Structure formats: C-alpha cells, structure tokens
Amino acid sequence: MKNRIYKYFFREFIHHFLIVIFALTAIIWTIQAVNFLDLVTDDGHAFKIYLLYSFLTIPKVLTKLIPFTFLIASILTILKFEKNNELILLWTSGLNKIHITNLIFCTSLLIMLLQLLMGSTINPETLNFSRTLLKNSELQFVPSLLKEKQFNDAVKGLTIFVEKKIDNKTYKNILIRDDGNVLTQISSGSSTIFAKSGYVTEDEKNLVLLNGNIQKLENEKDDIELIKFEKTSIYLAGLSTRTISEPKIQETSSIVIIQCLIDKYKDIDNCGRQAKNIRDTKAEINRRFGMPIFIPLIALISCFLLRSKKDGRISGLYKYIYFFIGFTIIVGSEITVRYSGISLNVTLLYYLIPITLSPIVYLLLIRTFKYENLS
Predict the structure, then answer these.
(1) Residues 329-340, mean pLDDT to the nearest whole number
(2) What's the pTM value of the predicted model, to 2 decimals?
(3) I want to staple 303 with a disulfide (CB 3.0 to 4.6 A). Which of 101, 151, 165, 265 is the partner?
C-alpha cells in the first residue's frame, strides 16, 4: 500500500516538475535567443550557427532553474493532494507524515545529483562546445558589416564605414581601413580603401567596389603607394569576427578548474594567479558543487505544508510563507556564492549553512508532527 502511495506521489511531483521547468526554460531561452540575434546581425555568423549556439545554452538555463523548479513542484504537489483531500485520506489510513517527508527528501537527493551532474559536467561542456563553434565560425553575411554612418569593427584589424545605403545591397562612399593585414588579397600590409560606390554579390560573400583607390603603406620605406581602380572585389565571408573565442570560467571543465587551484603554475585558460582570478575560480567551483546542497533544505522547508492547519484565517497564507522562505534560500545561495571564494572560512561557511540547517529543520518537522499527534 505504501509503495503505491509513494509511486503516486512521486509521479505527481515529476509531472509538476517537468511542466514547470519546461515552461520556464522555454520563456528564458526565447528571451536569450532574441539577444543572440546580434551574432547574425552584428557579427555576421551563419544562421545555423546562431540556432545551434542558442540551443547549446539550454543546459545552462536548466541548471539555474532546477532549485526554483523543485520548490514550485514540491509546493504544487502538496497543495494538489491537500485540495483533493488526499492528504487527509493518507493520514486517516495510518500513514505517518514523516514518511511523506522522507519521500520528498529522497526525491530532493535525486534532483540534487541531477543538478550536480548538470553544473559540474554537462553545462560547462556544452558551453565550451558553443564557444568553439563561434571560434571556428567564419563571417557569412557581408551586409552585416555595412551599416550606414557607422564604423564597424566586428572583424579584428578591419574597420568599415559606409556613408549611405542606397538599397539592400548597394552603398555609397565606402571607406575600409585594414590595420591587421586582414585583406591579404588587396595588400600585404596596412592599407586604406575608398570607393565611391559598391554592392554585395547575390551570395552575400563578396563586396564589389567601384571607382576608388587603395592606399598601401610600404613597411620598409614607410611610403604610401596609391592604386586607382574602376572595379575590384573583396571576399569578406571567410573572415573571423571579434566574437569572444576564448572559453570563460563558466565554460571550463571542472577538472581543469580544480587543476588550476592545485597547480598554481599550470598553463591553462582562466588560470590567472591574480587574487581576483583565484577568487572567481573558487566561486565557480562552489557554484557547481555547493549550490545543489541547498535543494534538500528547500525540500524540508516545503514539507511544513503537510502540517495540520487548524486556524482557517492563517492557513491560506502558509503556502506563500513557505514559498517565500524557500525562494529566499535560493536567492541567498546565489548571492553568497559570489563571495564564497574570498577565503577558506567563507567557503566553509557556505557549505555548512545547508548541511547544518537541514538536520535542524528535519528534527523540527518531527517535533511538529509529533506534537500534532499528541494534541
């Protein structure tokens, strides 16, 4: 009988958990995907790169949402059982409240392991792969570099200015400054190109310049060579943009971060020995391995909704009170993790808060339920 009840309760919880996390992830991912459109409009990446990069950020969103989703799902499940008078049936059938509390707590341990796996392994790997996509991606849309009355330097070492845009692919008075030897098909050194007009080819990969000149700087003599042209073509689609290609600390694997702290001379990305780098590295480790520990504490807080509500005037507020407490714990853990890398004492305090409070809250639940049985 108990096993059937536990399976039913667990199934209802998973049902609410999946619905909530899917809905929140869809909303947040849509907002982020809109912001990522700059990769196409400003940086000129291919649309398929934009889509794949956007999808690869979903694990990051899921990792952030798991604690909050667990809180919502726990409260919704308990409230559903209460609304359908199923909790009363459970108590009258002889099932102890602490058994349901243990079930919720064990479920929280599974969710904790899920977030630990997501935060320490899956999330940094997918983010690092998405960064690699941008690093290896070449500029695909030349029109994204040609913006009216704007100096566009999306490509490192190359600045493009257009005075007027006549139509979608035709431009007037184009100025191109190449300081990084980017346009090797035009010049082997620094150069400045001016054209009275120009247009983008149908495949959107080449810029055709009309009636202009090229000023090339000779490195050996520091002389300027002037070359006039009536028509010339520049292939821009294969260039790489300024999009950050080096992985951030959030995109670095957990093993590499731990190695960074152990071996201070290790030559790896994001392994600076400045105080700020060390503090950020420790905070990232605590975020990945410390934040999941708060989930069991949140589970125990939500279990207070199982208590008997004798005062009808206040009973309607309990769900808001315990939700606020759980939400405060989640927000507090997000804020304090940023400062957890300051020192060893602060790090220990960050881990000890959920580890110490969880058994205290559990004992308080036992006392509360026992007191209800005696009254």
Answers:
(1) 90
(2) 0.76
(3) 101
